[in-house]
Amino acid sequence: MKPTIVSSLLALACAGVATAHGGDLLNQGCRPIAKRSLDLQRRQLTQSGGEGQTVTAGGGASAARYSCDPNTCKLPKCHCADTNPPGGLDPKDVPQFIVFTADDAVQDYTINSVNQFLAQRKNPNGCTPVMSYYVSLNYTNYAQVTELYVNGNDVADHTMTHQEQPATNAEIDGNLITLNALAGIPYKSIIGYRAPFLNYSRANLEHLANTGFTYDSSSTASVPVTDPNTDAFWPYTLDNGMANDCSSVADICGGQPKLPGFWEIPMYAIFDQRGAAGAHLMDPWLDSSNASDVLSWMKNTFTDHYNGKRQPFGVYTHPIHLAKGYPGLTDPVDQINMLNEFLDWATTSADMQNVWIISNKQLMAWMQNPVPASQLNTLDAFKCQKPNAGHICNGFQENNDLLEHCISNTAGDALNNSPFYTCYGCPVTTPSPQQPNPPQKNNDKSVRTRIPANCDTAFWDPINARCTCNGSGCAFDDSTRPIGPNGSNLTSSGSSNTGSSSGSSPSASSDPYRTFGSGAGRTTSSSVFGWAASVVAAAVGGAMMVFI
Ligand SMILES: *[C@@H]1O[C@H](CO)[C@@H](O)[C@H](O)[C@H]1NC(C)=O
Ligand SMILES: *[C@@H]1O[C@H](CO)[C@@H](O)[C@H](O)[C@H]1NC(C)=O
Ligand SMILES: *[C@@H]1O[C@H](CO)[C@@H](O)[C@H](O)[C@H]1NC(C)=O
Ligand SMILES: *[C@@H]1O[C@H](CO)[C@@H](O)[C@H](O)[C@H]1NC(C)=O
Ligand SMILES: *[C@@H]1O[C@H](CO)[C@@H](O)[C@H](O)[C@H]1NC(C)=O
Ligand SMILES: *[C@@H]1O[C@H](CO)[C@@H](O)[C@H](O)[C@H]1NC(C)=O
Ligand SMILES: [Zn+2]
User: Fold this and answer.
1) Where is the composition biased (Low complexity) (predicted)?
2) Which of 311, 346, 328 minimizes the C-alpha distance to 234?
3) For labelling, which of 21, 179, 375, 447 has a CA lying 20 to 30 Å from the CA of 143?
C-alpha cells in the first residue's frame, strides 16, 4: 500500500465534491474508502509486526487456534475453514469465481458504474453476470434496489446509516425492514451482510446468525494463496469459530464464536510485488496512480488463485469511485479501462477455462452444493430467467412509469437528499434505525400494498395488492425469518400500510442528483442489466412466464 498516494487521491475526490455539492452526496463514497484503507493497513502492520498471535508460522488455521473435523462438519450445513476446494473436488474441476461486490448507496451513478463492467458480459452459460450489492440507506434510491434484485443480484445488508463503530442491532435490522418495505424484497432473500468500514464485532456475527442471515463477508484474507500460511480459506461455517482476522478483531478465533450453519466469506486481498506486505482489498485502483501497476497486481494474484486451489478472486468496489460524469470530478477513465481489461483477460484467455463472475449469494449456493465446473449450470442460482409478469410496479425498468417519487414536506428531511423512488408507497419521512418503516404518505389517496411474505418481488402488484402468479416459480411458502431482539414479530407487513395523508402536494425540489425518471414515460438511465439470450417459455401454475 502507498499511503501517500491513497490519501492524496482521497483528498482530491472529497474536495471536489465538497466544493461542488456541499460534501453531502459523496460522504458515502469518500469516508468509507479512507477508513477501509486505514483499517487494512492496520491489519497488515499487525501481521508484519509478528506479535505471534497473527496468521503466521503454523498456518492460518492453527495460528487462529482453529480446529474442525471434516468427518463431522459436513456440507451442506457445516464446512470447515480450508484452503482446499469443497466437496473433495480437484482444483482443475473447480470454477474460478470472480466475486464482484459493490457497497453503499444505490443510485444512478453507482448502477451506471457497475454496468460499465458487467452489462456487456456473459458467463459461460450465456447469462449476464450478477453481483452482490451491500446496500446502506443514505442516498439510496429504493426503486433501483428493487431493480437490482429482480434482475438477479444479491441485495445484502450494509446497515442503515453506515457508522464507524460496529453496528447496533437496530442498524442491521432496520436496514432489512426498510429493504423489505420500500424495495419490496422478501426477507428470505436478503441473506448477506458486510460491515461498514469492515468494522465488525463478535456481537455482530452472533446477531446475524441469530437473525437468520446466511453469511457475513467482512473479514479479510490477507496472506497470499502461494504462502503456506495463507488464510485464504474457502468460505466456511462458524461451527468452530472464526479463522480470519484473529489479530485485528476482539474476542474471535480460538473456536469462537460458535455459530452453527452461519457462513463467513473472507474478502480475498490482491497483492503487489511485495506480497503479504503489499495487500490491497477494496478499490485497489485507488492505491496507485498508475493503472498499469494495479492491472499487474490483479493479474498476478488471479493467476496464483487459478493455478492454485482456485479460491474465489474478489473485485470489491465502491462503484462511485469508478463512476463517470460525477459533477466536479474527473472521470477515472484509466481505472475503468483497466478493470475492463482485467475482466476481459480473466474471462476470455484461451489458457484459462471456467472463469465465472458471480455474487456472494451464488457462491453460497455453490459451496452448499459444490458441483464440478462442468455442471455449474444445473444450479438454480446460476440460471437466468426473466419473469413476464405484465405491467405492474415490480422493479423492471419498463414499468418505471408506475413508481412513486418520494419527497418529504419537512425541510431538511434526508429523504430529499437524493432521488428516492419506490413501488411500495412513499414514507412520510426518511427511514431510520428508530423508525425503519415510517407510515406511508398518501398524497394522491392511493395506498400501495407492501409485499406479503409469500410472493416474490417480480410478481407482486403493489397497486392492486395481488400476487400475479401463484405457481411454484413465484409464490412460495413463507419462510420469513424472525428478526429483531428475541426474534420478535418483525416479519413482512403484507397488508397496506396506511399512514397519515398529507394534504399538500410535494413540490419538485431542485436536487441536482435527480437523474432518475420522474413520472410517466421517462425511463431511468440505469439498468442495462440483461438476461440471457436464450428464450424459454414455461407455464408455471397456470400462469404464463416468458424466460428471456
Ligand atoms: C446517514 O444519514 C443519517 C441521517 O439520515 C445521518 O445521521 C448519518 O450520519 C448519515 N451517515 C453517513 C455515513 O453519512
Ligand atoms: C471500529 O470500531 C472500534 C470500536 O469497537 C473503534 O475504536 C474503531 O475506531 C473503529 N474503526 C474504524 C476504522 O472506524
Ligand atoms: C506504469 O506502470 C507500468 C508497469 O506497471 C510501467 O511500464 C509504466 O512506465 C508506468 N507508467 C508511469 C507513467 O509511471
Ligand atoms: C391462483 O391465481 C388465480 C388467478 O389469480 C386464482 O384464480 C387462483 O385461485 C389462485 N390459486 C391458488 C391456489 O391460490
Ligand atoms: C428479550 O427476552 C428477554 C428474556 O425473555 C427479556 O428479558 C428482554 O427484555 C427481551 N428483550 C426485548 C427487547 O424484548
Ligand atoms: C405481531 O404483529 C401483529 C401485527 O402488528 C400483532 O397483531 C401481533 O400481536 C404480534 N404478535 C406478537 C407475538 O407480538
Ligand atoms: Zn460502506
Assistant:
1) 485-510
2) 311
3) 21
Contact (Cβ atoms closer than 8 angstroms) between residue 252 and residue 23: no
Question: Amino acid identity, residue 393?
Answer: C
Please give the sequence-ordered ranges of beta strands (E in DSSP) within 46-177, or none if there are none. 96-104, 132-135, 154-157
Question: Within 13 A of 323's CA, how many CA atoms are on the CB side?
Answer: 22
| Set of cell numbers at residue 192 | 448477506
| Distance separating alpha carbons of residues 193 and 103, to the nearest angstrom | 11
Tens digit of pLDDT for each residue in 174-208? Answer: 999 999 999 999 998 999 999 999 999 999 999 99
Closest residue by CA, ligand 1 atom 7: 161
Domain 3-60+74-382: which topology?
A: TIM Barrel (3.20.20)
Nearest bound ligand to the CA of residue 139: 1
- Identify the residue whose C-alpha is closest to ligand 1 atom 4: 414
Ligand 2 nearest atom to the CA of residue 198, by list position: 13
**Look-up: residue for cell 446502506?**
136
pLDDT grade for 469, boundaries at 50, 70 and 90: confident
CA distance 185 to 452: 10
Ligand 1 atom at shortest distance from the alpha carbon of 430: 5
Closest ligand 2 atom, CA of 199? 1
Cα of 491 to ligand 4 centre, how many Å? 24
Nearest to 496 by CA among 538, 471, 520, 462: 462
For β-strands 404-405 and 421-422, DSSP reports them as antiparallel
Pairing type for strands 355-358 and 313-317 reads unpaired
Per DSSP, what are the bridge partners of residue 404? Answer: 422
Atom of ligand 2 nearest to the CA of 39: 13
How many angstroms separate the CA atoms of 517 and 519, rounded?
Answer: 6
Residues 373-394 pLDDT 10s: 999 888 989 988 788 888 999 9
Centre of ligand 2 to C-alpha 304, Å, is 32
Cβ of 292 closer than 6 Å to ligand 3, yes or no, is yes
Question: Contact 317/105 with Cβ under 8 angstroms?
Answer: no
Instruction: Compute the distance from residue 97 Cα to the ligand 6 centre, in Å.
Output: 43
Burial of residue 395 (number of CB atoms within 10 Å: 0-12, 13-18, 19+): buried
